[in-house]
Amino acid sequence: MSAAFPAERTAILTGAASPRGIGRATAHYLAERGWSIGIIDLDEAAAQAVAAEIAEQHGVAAAGAGANVADEAQVRAAFDALEPQLPPLVALVNLAGVSSPDPYLEVTPDEWNRVIAINLNGVHYATRRAAETMTANGVGRIVSMSSISAQRGGGTFSKTAYSAAKAGVIGLTRSVARELGRLGVTVNAIAPGPIDTDIMGGTLTEERKAAMSADGVLPRIGSPRDIAAGVAYLISEDAGYVTGQTLNIDGGTYMH
């Protein structure tokens, strides 16, 4: 049986310190809605700076820690550092990731391993550590970033290594949802379509935005706020009957 959803609660976000990323926008969006925030990023100073900015602007508790999500010991240490500083951990948002535009016939073993290590193993390490706290408390929400690239087989800026890792995130999400549901924890994924962030290879021109939106049914590409709103729903108390799902926020690019 699930425990009560605490009024004072924390969301930890991985990869949330880059200036124009989905993570930072999501951290602000959640803080506006009363969530305390923990940020884990490769750049510890940036994680702490964004946390300080969030605490100042939104009046919530916030803290930052550094970790390479591909290193399980670093991930566990970051959670261990953040949890005592913040209200109970209720939500994890797995946002840390890297793009990989290398064509399949040019993918080196090092590139393949780098992309899987960050985009899939990193999600597992953070999920596993967060789930230990959540199941002990009897309540939790986990949301991980997949991609329409996983569902369409690429066709985006990134290619096969990225698609394989992001498909792995969907499989991980469903399986962990099945195992943790009776322990009070929901686990879902979001599959963004083209979003206006720097991960697409730099700031986008209007021409490139128009070309990228052509696949969808809406006349624009997505913004980080579009993803943040989806995260806010999936980690909310109201989403307690939603688990094992992949929510596409993609302007209709992939309908399934």
TrEMBL record:
UniProt keyword Glycoprotein present: no
Location of the Ketoreductase domain: 9-198
Keyword check for Nucleotidyltransferase: no
InterPro entries with a match to the protein in the record: KR_dom, NAD(P)-bd_dom_sf, Sc_DH/Rdtase_CS, SDR_fam
GO molecular function, one term: oxidoreductase activity, acting on the CH-OH group of donors, NAD or NADP as acceptor
Keyword annotations: Oxidoreductase
Similarity comment text for this entry: Belongs to the short-chain dehydrogenases/reductases (SDR) family.
Protein name: SDR family oxidoreductase
Species for this entry: Microbacterium stercoris
Lineage: Bacteria, Bacillati, Actinomycetota, Actinomycetes, Micrococcales
